[in-house]
Amino acid sequence: DMSCLMHLQGIIDRQSFPLQTIHIAEILNKTETLCR
What we know:
This protein is an all-alpha fold. It is built from 2 helices and no strands.
């Protein structure tokens, strides 16, 4: 759910953690592109 990821990213940003949230579909899409 993108709203959940946006909420988590907001918390991460406020705490100044060097992390980025990403949806599993984006990871799978990148993996599929690399395997072709």
